[in-house]
TrEMBL record:
This is AMP-binding protein. It comes from Actinomadura rugatobispora. The lineage of its organism: Bacteria, Bacillati, Actinomycetota, Actinomycetes, Streptosporangiales. It holds the Pfam family AMP-binding. It comes from the Bacteria. Residues 427-501 form the AMP-binding enzyme C-terminal domain.
Length: 529
């Protein structure tokens, strides 16, 4: 509270009707005082009271660093209980946490630092020190850089040890952003979606209802925590008073050991990690029977337990980062491939004329409700295109079936799917065009021989009088992009086919074997949610 009594009265009235994740943690320390809240990546267990004390200390560090309402905090590290602490401390201070993709290259990370303008950057030395150094050479951002896995007075643990555990319980607007999640570069650069506490909370409760998350639930944070597919489960587990277990990355041995030791029930394990875990545990050296699994992979089903909450013949689900994850829920026996709209959102489909289309007709999916992002960070023009007339326009095409269920058909723009990752050609093309010998480039997806979706192929036009090679362009890509965004194959052409003042991708596909574009933007093959 403030020292101004009039402001205190207003804030007190607002607090009566608000609920933040900070409030959830405050309640859990009272409702579940003996429950293990987190198991760290080093095996340390924290009860809810112990977690709340640490979060209060971190919030004190935030305030001492000048981080308050709306200020950004960047997490540049792998999975850790400390990332959850950052999110919860931000929830108590009104700050915004941005977990960045630590697997991307220094140029991309520096772009995010520059764009987010954080007050604090938490960074990791183990496995990432060289990359972090390269980022700081390009863009330090004027932020306070704190090593989360270090030692000493200025490290994460050192600062917590010297901070106050007092919780002032000031008012924080739950409708303001808590997370800043950078999405694929569909317009040539990443864009940060701002997600509110209320939206994340309601989304998590819907997920918990469908998947059986409760105070007995143990969730393994092994998938990338810079993805909402992991974070919504992390926060839903915390909200329901369950236990979150952390391993730094999707490593088969770490996953198997954690599942057996802590009897984890859920985890987001996608290909190719799923196959790697099955191969690693081929002889059942680890007991993975506590994990709940859905039908689909015989080898995985033999190691795990059927999910009691899975309904036979149920649909997949559809969503995107901008709507906090899923905007439809799984339903059994429906005509639509992606279930029914979430109970906390509205979903409609509109034609090119802006009118709602009839069932059976194709239209752009538009949604509204509390779980929709508040907007893209520092993108007013893009916000104007994506959010208008009372709707968030997803840029995705779909169809409402006669029974009211939804089928997602694909993005209006071109999207390439490589394993779990979404790749937007515009970003890869922009990188290739930065090479001094490249005049133009078009990137397509080629169906992969395995189940990994697509591989990238680049068709490149070289500037007159200059030369380059495929290997040189691949090396150029690896210097500026994450490995999964770099084309496996580069072909040269005298010119690119054009259509409506842009690249004719359909012609490129026909000529160079493109195809197999995704029919779902989200996790239709989840093993645990």
């Amino acid at each position: 509270m403030t020292t101004d009594p009039d402001i205190d009265i207003v804030e007190g009235h607002l607090m009566i009707h608000s609920l933040t994740f900070g409030d959830v943690l405050r309640q859990n320390r009272r409702s579940h005082p003996r429950q293990t809240a987190v198991v760290s990546d080093t095996g340390e267990r924290l009860t809810y009271p112990e977690l709340d004390d640490r979060v209060n200390r971190l919030a004190d560090v935030f305030r001492a660093s000048g981080v308050s309402g709306g200020d950004r905090v960047v997490w540049l590290g792998q999975n850790s209980h400390r990332l959850l602490e950052c999110v919860l401390a931000a929830a108590k201070c009104g700050a915004v946490v941005c977990p960045v993709n630590w697997q991307t290259e220094a140029d991309e990370l520096a772009f995010v630092i520059d764009d987010a303008e954080p007050g604090i950057v938490f960074w990791q030395s183990s496995e990432l020190e060289r990359k972090v150094a390269a980022v700081r050479e390009r863009r330090d951002g004027g932020a306070r850089w704190i090593q989360h896995d270090g030692a000493g007075a200025d490290s994460y643990e050192g600062l917590l040890a010297g901070a106050s555990a007092h919780d002032p319980e000031g008012y924080v607007d739950p409708n303001e952003p808590l997370l800043l999640m950078y999405t694929g570069a569909f317009d040539g650069r990443p864009n940060g979606a701002l997600l509110s506490q209320t939206g994340i909370m309601l989304h998590g409760l819907v997920v918990a209802n469908q998947t059986g998350i409760n105070e007995e639930y143990v969730y393994l944070n092994c998938g990338p925590m810079y993805r909402m597919g992991v974070l919504w489960n992390t926060l839903a587990t915390l909200h329901l008073g369950g236990t979150n277990v952390f391993v730094p990355r999707a490593d088969p041995e770490l996953i198997c050991a954690a599942v057996e030791r802590y009897r984890c029930m859920g985890a987001l394990i996608m290909e190719p990690t799923l196959s790697a875990v099955i191969a690693f545990n081929e002889h059942a050296a680890y007991d993975l029977s506590s994990l709940r699994s859905r039908p689909g992979n015989a080898g995985w089903s033999a190691m795990t337990t059927p999910d009691p909450h899975h309904r036979p013949n149920s649909s997949s689900q559809y969503g995107q980062t901008e709507v906090t994850g899923l905007i439809t829920t799984a339903a059994a026996g429906v005509a639509g491939l992606h279930g029914r709209p979430s109970p906390v959102a509205q979903l409609r489909l509109f034609g090119e004329d802006g009118r709602e289309v009839a069932p059976g007709e194709i239209g752009e999916i538009a949604v509204r409700g509390p779980q929709i992002m508040t907007g893209y960070h520092r993108r007013p023009e893009l916000n104007g295109r994506r959010q208008h007339d009372g709707w968030h326009w997803t840029n995705d095409l779909g169809r409402r079936e006669a029974d009211g269920s939804i089928t997602f058909l694909g993005p209006r723009g071109r999207l390439i799917k490589s394993g779990i990752e979404n790749i937007y050609p515009a970003e890869v093309e922009a990188c290739l065009r930065r090479h001094p010998a490249v005049a133009d480039a078009g990137v397509i997806g080629v169906p992969a021989a395995d189940a990994g979706g697509q591989t990238l192929k680049a068709i490149v036009v070289v500037k007159p009088g200059m030369t380059t090679t495929p290997d040189e362009l691949v090396r150029h890509g690896l210097e500026h992009l994450a490995g999964y965004k770099v084309p496996r194959e580069v072909r040269f052409a005298p010119a690119l086919p054009m259509k409506n003042a842009g690249i004719d991708y359909e012609a490129l596909d026909r000529e160079h074997g493109g195809g197999g574009y995704p029919g779902s933007r989200l996790f239709t093959t989840m093993t645990g949610i």
